[in-house]
Design a protein that fits this description.
Elements (H helix, E strand, L loop, with lengths): L9 H35 L1 H5 L5 H32 L2 H21 L3 H4 L2 H30 L6 H29 L2 H6 L4 H17 L6 H5 L1 H6 L3 H8 L1 H31 L5 H29 L1 H23 L4 H19 L2 H7 L6 H15 L4 H12 L2 H21 L6 H15 L1
Length: 446
């Protein structure tokens, strides 16, 4: 006689869902804090610190190139952790990714510069950036699945927004740490030691996130998929053989969101200082002020995706991004702070609206036993084609043409790539659409 354990009560399931969402949000925010402080430092100080003896443009490009190294590593992290996340569990990979990111970030904060150890400095910087990329590459898929697979019925989009909101929260935290340093310290002190403080603070933040994540539980979806996962020796192989079109289109939907976001967070800081004549603190303030609107866009679009469907929300948001991408630099080039603030807020909100339904959309594209691998691979393809290249491309375009119109054209082009990708991507199992159809049927019967 088999004794079946009683099903968890709704209250227990609700607590589990909230704990999963909190763990995903906090851990993701801290991991992306680590990832983004590198981008901010690359824009502000890493060029002369690790690539001296070159022109200012060459130093900036070299620093942005090391930023891109992290994006090269991200698909590798996504593949490796996706494999074990599908076979062993989501939680263990989330802990692993956090440890990798924390180690690499603190090590960068302690790394001697070129003046101290010569060519070993940039070599080690690139290596540590690669480790950061491995960690964050496995982070997104695990955080998204923990949040969405534990979400209450009909709220997968809303709960899936928790790790998405962790991204701008990480940006906000990173810049809130940098802002007082750039304000209080003079350039010499900031270059000597001030830039290292945000990296070293990561040690404290990682301990907090680790404590939360160790208390997470695996989802019912994953537990139910263990047998299927055991039969699939290489989840990635199944993804590439049976779902390669879905992976490519999913990555395409993310190219603009990620690429424009990184230019907005990294390149614009340098642009405002070098081309518009504003100080570091002013540009950081504009970015900080826009982050709450970025998060609001995520929350609103994620909520709406549970009601009218992920794909529909994604199409509307991607269309809006094409328009805002065309207007962003013309507004920034006015060099009027109120107008620049409006431009930053508008772009942040629309980027958030594009990212809001993404967690649930990507998770629902793949069966549970290959979901970590499929969602991570699609996400990281978009990341490397978008975010990793954007600051370099934007800097090179402005240097080549001497006008922000070239950067605007790049923004619009990748926004159109993402819009076309979501138009081509089919999402037949969108539960929000099923719920809406069920409601319409009930109304017709009534």
């Amino acid at each position: 006689m088999t004794i079946t354990a009683p099903a968890p009560s709704p209250e227990v399931l609700q607590r589990k869902a909230r704990k999963a969402a909190l763990g995903s949000f906090v851990g993701t925010a801290i991991e992306w804090y680590d990832f983004f402080i590198y981008g901010t430092a690359a824009a502000l100080v890493l060029g002369p610190q690790f690539f001296p003896g070159t022109s200012e443009l060459a130093g900036t490009l070299a620093a942005f190139a090391t930023l891109a190294v992290g994006f090269v590593a991200r698909p590798i992290g996504g593949i490796v952790m996706g494999h074990f996340g599908d076979r062993v569990g989501r939680k263990s990979m989330l802990v692993t990714s956090l440890l990798l990111m924390g180690f690499a970030t603190v090590a960068i904060g302690l790394l001697p510069n070129y003046a101290a150890i010569g060519v070993a400095a940039p070599v080690l910087l690139v290596a540590l950036r690669f480790v950061q990329g491995l960690g964050v590459g496995g982070e997104w898929g695990g955080a998204v699945l923990v949040a969405t697979e534990n979400a209450p019925r009909g709220k997968r989009g809303l709960y899936g927004a928790a790790p998405q909101i962790g991204v701008p929260a990480g940006v906000l935290l990173a810049n809130l740490v940098f802002l007082p340093l750039t304000t209080v310290l003079d350039d010499a002190a900031f270059a000597a030691w001030g830039w290292r403080v945000p990296f070293l603070l990561s040690a404290v933040l990682v301990v907090v996130a680790m404590w939360i994540r160790l208390g997470l539980e695996e989802s019912a979806d994953f537990e139910a998929s263990r047998d299927a996962a055991g039969e699939v020796k290489l989840p990635l192989a199944e993804v590439l053989v049976k779902h390669w079109k879905t992976v490519l289109l999913a990555g395409g939907t993310f190219v603009a969101t990620n690429g424009i976001a990184y230019a907005y967070m990294v390149y614009v800081l340098k642009y405002g200082e070098a081309e518009l004549g504003f100080g570091k603190s002013t540009m950081l303030f504009l970015l900080i002020a826009s982050c709450p609107f970025w998060m609001a866009g995520m929350a609103i679009s994620a909520y709406k995706s549970d009601i009218i469907g992920r794909r529909r929300v994604y199409i509307i948001s991607s269309s809006a991004l094409v328009i805002v991408a065309a207007l962003f630099f013309p507004l920034m080039d006015t060099a009027m702070l109120p107008v620049m603030l409006v431009a930053m807020i508008a772009l942040g909100f629309v980027l958030g609206a594009c990212a809001g339904p993404q967690s649930a959309l990507f998770a629902e594209l793949f069966p549970a036993h290959i979901r970590y691998s499929g969602a991570s691979l699609g996400y990281q393809i978009g990341a490397i084609l978008g975010g990793g290249l954007a600051p370099i491309v934007a800097t090179s375009l402005f240097a080549a043409f001497g006008t922000s119109l070239a950067v605007t054209a790049y923004f619009v082009l990748i926004a159109l790539v993402s819009l076309v990708s979501i138009l081509l991507l089919r999402h037949p199992h969108d539960p929000a659409v099923a719920v809406a159809q069920s409601r319409r049927s009930e109304q017709e019967v009534a």
